[in-house]
Specification:
The protein is α/β, with parallel strands linked by helices and 286 residues long. Helix 4 crosses helix 5. It has a single domain, classed as 3-Layer(aba) Sandwich (Rossmann fold).
Length: 286
Amino acid sequence: MMPRTGLFQRWAARGFSIADALNALQTQQGWQLQADIPYRSGARGMLDVYTPAIQASAPAPIVVFFYGGSWQSGSRDLYRFVGASLAQRGIVTFVPDYGVYPQKRYPDFLEDAAKAVRFARDNARRWNGAPEHLVVMGHSAGAYIAAMLAFDKRWLRGAGLDPVDHIAGLVGLAGPYDFLPIVDPVLQDIFGGSDRIDTQPIRYVGHGAPPSLLIAPRADKFVSPGNTTRLAAHIRSLSGVVTERHYPRIGHLSLIGAFSPMLRFLAPVLSDVTVFARNPRGARQS
């Protein structure tokens, strides 16, 4: 059998990304996909829905997953291995696109994300999902988006929802939650300056916030794990419920890659997310 690294190198030599490889190697059993469903009008306004192949007798928990890309890139089809892996474990998973720079800036992508959550909640039963059991999850820039929806009530309220009543939990994977001052010129343009405190998720944590699972790789070279440490500490200081995990020997991209069957040996991220998504309100403080 060819070593995993050698296989990925051959894919790269042929012009495929690692995401292409992980998607191609995803097991095909146990999940179904309905693609290209509009949740709003216009470009980048569609989502994909991953469901368990066999419908359970009771409505399933829901995850709305926001991918990363520095608010500048990304595509829902690259993350089939994430949606499929969760669906195989009985979780209905929505993966939306959202507006990115330079066409969109803060807070456009938050408004898009809120509309995607509203669509998922309104249409949950169409895919045997439980609308009252909806978890928002994101990786990197997507974790920022998920955290802002969970903590800053403006965005979901703009879509007719409220995080206290309509979000069962938050999963943040290697997210930037407290990253001022912004030094990158492009990010300054995206967020309208270098020191706008109103753009930071940590500012909006309050009493009654949804339970959170915050995961960071200790070897992250892109987003400092201190973002996760500080956000978790702030949630605890307000008597909120947060589970904090720091995985050794894993990096920023391999954290999301570990959802794939080929890379699950790297970290238990899929298991930890599955346990939390099934019962976020039963999560223990840690």
